[in-house]
Specification:
Phosphoenolpyruvate Carboxykinase, domain 3; Phosphoenolpyruvate Carboxykinase, domain 2; 3 domains; globular; nine-stranded mixed β-sheet; binds manganese (II) ion; 30 strands; alpha+beta; binds sulfoacetic acid; 16 helices; Phosphoenolpyruvate Carboxykinase, domain 1
Length: 611
């Protein structure tokens, strides 16, 4: 397919403008076919970038440049019309100035390369909750990842028609090739971090990315479109675009509920989405592990997973920590920055077994003696980068729910927020109202480990709704949007159909610093309590901070003593008083007059109830 075959006038004009600016050798409109996937992979293998894995059919390992290993948050911009619209949690540059800077960078940047045009759908093609994006990129690695992570190709152009809405996404790795030059095994990118740009233009719903080829910087459907731009669309159109997993929970009677959960990074979101319950008779299936898009229909909130794959953190993933993820990555996967064993398989720290063979090649391509354990090394560099990833088709997951691609979405009964907190925050707590639930989302955060240099250990890094890196506008307005949706549902007489809101903490520690709760599959005990709460079961006590489980409502897992269990579900009055002042002085204060008054009211209410 050529540019001239595009039937959508605005799309055609934009693609032609991009080709004229970036001057590639060739323009390819992606059709999403297997042939396209295979030929892109072949080009990557021929360029020395992709390594076929003997042990995993149709799977490949890539090693990125050491400068290009994760989302570049300091180079991520929300170019709203003024700084206040971007808010205190985002980097801002004036949009006119930023477009000028980036247009200069884009000029001629695809010389010697193919410019791929990827039409993709976030969400099942044609779903009324889905949205279409078109990514222009000079990276074949992006093409193959987008094939797995989104729905790509002609079917998307068909839905787009001649005048449908799409989010234009431009991406370049910033490495033109001279005639006869090839990548020769060297990951192409702009190695100077300060020349990378991950830019969002919320007022025109556009994404411009330059200089990075890795993850969310380059696969623009994920964080850039499905969260940053979608959060703006959701604000403007009255829906929710959230950094949430979606799970399906079935009780022993076969009754089903769907729950969506937002946890900051490193709190086990993917593990929770694919959990294997220890509670007999209960079943967890996954709809999505990272992003949820939700719309009200007849007063009920329905969610889809806009993605089609998992872009999961590899280190720490094992048959023990996440059995279903390990089953999902047996074939047809892309691995980035993992180790390579001498029998042609991937390897990473905490994969569950020591690296086989005498040597292993680390993520930088250096041969190293095989570690005798899979533990994270106390000193020296790990074999796999800490942000090494697998890209896996979601349909390969053994616990994928059969309705995961239902274009109508699934009805959401509960929201779950939570973070890593050594003290104060109970195992589980249900909000007393929608606004109290929004308050819970707004105070989400995790404790800083001593490793983060700029913050005092033990202090809390707030990550409201786990959205701080992903909210495309002023976060104070984002809280207000959540409050507004709840009030609207209540005003329309649909208050009882609103999802119940919960806050969890799997990470409480005792005085000796040991975790008090085993987590993983045992979290099914908490999910089952939530399930019954949604049905109005009398299994809770009302306290100053919310509804906590009655003493025996959650049976203790093996090894958790009754007094520990009691500690996990009680109100720590002194701790909460400190929490309240930290929220007021260190957290809410940052948002100035953009912080909705309703949230201060919640704070006052809890403070009074604790007194
Ligand atoms: O690289 S991504 O942004 O897609 C994943 C992440 O950092 O959470
Ligand atoms: Mn995420």
């Amino acid at each position: 397919m050529k540019i001239d075959d595009l039937k959508h006038a605005k799309l055609k004009e934009w693609v032609q403008w991009a080709a004229d600016l970036m001057t590639p050798n060739e323009v390819v409109i992606c059709d999403g076919s297997k042939e396209e996937y295979d030929s892109s992979i072949k080009a990557l293998v021929d360029a020395g970038l992709g390594i076929p894995l003997k042990k995993r059919p149709n799977s490949y390992l890539f090693r990125s440049d050491p400068s290009d290993v994760a989302r570049a948050e300091s180079r991520t911009f929300i170019a709203a019309k003024n700084k206040d619209e971007a808010g205190p949690t985002n980097n801002w540059i004036d949009p006119v100035e930023l477009k000028k800077t980036m247009t200069d960078l884009y000029r001629g940047c695809m010389k010697g390369r193919i410019m791929y045009v990827i039409p993709f759908s976030m969400g099942p093609v044609g779903s009324d909750i889905a949205k279409i994006g078109v990514e222009i990129t000079d990276s074949a690695y992006v093409v193959v990842n987008m094939h797995i992570m989104t729905r790509v190709g002609k079917k998307v152009l068909d839905v787009l028609g001649t005048d449908g809405f799409f989010v234009p996404c431009i991406h370049s790795i910033a490495k033109p090739l001279q005639p006869g030059e090839s990548d020769g095994g060297k990951w192409p990118c702009e190695p100077d971090v300060n020349k990378k740009y991950i830019s969002h233009f919320p007022d025109t719903y556009e994404i411009w990315s330059y200089g990075s080829g890795y993850g969310g910087n380059a696969l623009l459907g994920k964080k850039c479109l499905a969260l940053r731009i979608a959060s703006v669309l959701a604000r403007d159109e009255g829906w929710l675009a959230e950094h949430m997993l979606i799970l399906k929970l079935t009780n022993p009677d076969g009754k089903v509920k769907y729950m969506a959960g937002a946890l900051p990074s490193a709190c086990g979101k993917t593990n929770l989405a694919m959990l294997v319950p220890t509670l007999p008779g209960w079943k967890v299936e996954v709809i999505g592990d990272d992003i949820a898009w939700m719309k009200f229909k007849n007063g009920q909130l329905y969610a889809i997973n806009p993605e089609a794959g998992f872009f999961g953190v590899a280190p720490g993933t094992s048959e023990q920590s996440n059995y279903n993820a390990m089953q999902s990555i047996k074939e047809n996967c892309i691995f980035s920055n993992c180790g390579l064993t001498d029998d042609g398989d991937i390897w990473w720290e905490q994969i569950g077994y020591p690296a086989p063979g005498k040597t292993v090649i680390d993520w930088k391509g250096n041969e190293r003696p095989s570690p005798q354990t899979d533990k994270v090394p106390k000193e020296g560099e790990p074999i796999a980068h800490v942000n090494a990833r697998f890209t896996a088709p979601a349909k390969q997951c053994p616990c994928i729910a059969s309705e995961w691609e239902d274009p109508a979405g699934v009805p959401i009964s509960a929201f779950l927020f939570g973070g890593r907190r050594a003290s104060t925050i109970p195992l589980i707590n249900q909000s007393k109202s929608w606004i109290h639930g929004v308050f819970m989302g707004s105070i989400t955060g995790s404790e800083i480990t001593a490793a983060a240099l700029d913050l005092k250990a033990g202090s809390v890094r707030r990550d409201p709704f786990a959205m701080v890196p992903f909210c495309g506008y002023n976060m104070g307005d984002y809280f207000a949007h959540w409050i507004k949706l709840g009030k609207k549902a209540e005003a329309e007489g649909n208050g009882d159909k609103l999802p119940k809101i919960f806050f969890c903490n799997w990470f409480r520690k005792d005085a000796d610093g040991h975790f008090m709760w085993p987590g993983f599959g045992e979290n099914s005990r908490v999910l089952s309590w939530m399930f019954d709460r949604c049905d109005g079961k009398d299994n809770a006590v009302e306290t100053a901070i919310g509804f906590l489980p009655k003493p025996d409502a959650i049976t203790a897992p093996e090894g958790v003593k009754p007094e520990v269990m009691a500690e996990l579900i009680k109100v720590d009055t002194a701790g909460w008083k400190e929490e309240i002042s930290s929220i007021r002085d260190e957290h809410y204060a940052k948002f100035g007059d953009r912080l909705p008054k309703e949230l201060y009211d919640e704070l006052d209410k809890i403070e009074k109830a604790l007194a």
